[in-house]
Amino acid sequence: MMIFIIVIAVIVFVAVIMTVEYNSLVVLRNRVDNQSAQVDVQLKRRTELIPNLIETVKGYAKFEKSTLTDIAQLRSKVMNSENTSETCAADAKLGRVCSKVLALGESYPELKSNTNFLKLQEELSETENKIVMARQFYNDVVTKYNTQIMLFPKSFFAKIFGFKKYALLESAAEERKNVQISSSDFQFE
After folding, report:
1. Which of 124, 135, 47, 130 is nearest to 84 (CA)?
2. SS3 for 81?
3. How much helix, strand and coil, in percent to the nearest 5, is found in the chain?
4. What digits encode the pLDDT tens for the residues 33-74?
5. Which residues pair with 186 in a beta bridge?
6. Are 71 and 97 in contact, with CB atoms under 8 Å apart?
7. Alpha carbon of residue 72 to chain centroid
């Protein structure tokens, strides 16, 4: 009878440990998914601002057809990507093109004084900051999650229940370069 009680106590103890560890991993995974969605929200906000910015700038500048095509294609990729990594890769390229458009304001006083342009420039700048913060928070949550699934005893349960590592969002080498624009990037009327 005493052995039976000990066996039951061990089974209950293991079940409680498994439940606690599983639930803590689920909470962490859900935080990662939530932060991924937060990054997507900010990227979507930027893609919604871009057409307004382009329309405002068009009144002052006539773009090369390839620049407009690039913006449209990159915006579409950001909006239709399958996962956070794809979204961020397309977004990095889109950000570089947007930076060129925003830099026009520095070169052309009449554009720089346009209230719509200034408002859009401010909103886009604010959105860029939110994207940076969302990516940073995402990476923090992913690091915590990845660490937990690697530590014992969670690593044991993570393997049993199929918890997989998430990739960190890293900036591409081209994102780290300063944006350079020249008059050949845009044709003016």
Report:
1. 135
2. coil
3. 80, 0, 15
4. 999 888 888 888 877 877 777 676 666 555 545 665 677 777
5. 63
6. yes
7. 19
CB burial of residue 122 (10 Å; 0-12, 13-18, 19+): exposed
Nearest to 128 by CA among 101, 110, 107: 101
Q: Which two structure tokens, joined as six digits, stand for 160?
A: 């049993």
Q: Is 56 buried (19+), middle (13-18) or exposed (0-12) by CB count in 10 A?
A: buried
Q: In the block, which residue shows the tokens 């349960």? A: 157
Question: β-strand 186-187 against 62-63: which pairing, if any?
Answer: antiparallel
> Structure pTM?
0.63
CA distances from 22 to 30, 55, 81, 129, 155 (A): 12, 51, 30, 35, 10
Q: Can you read off the two tokens belonging to residue 62? A: 């006539």
Which tokens is 94 given? 């889109």
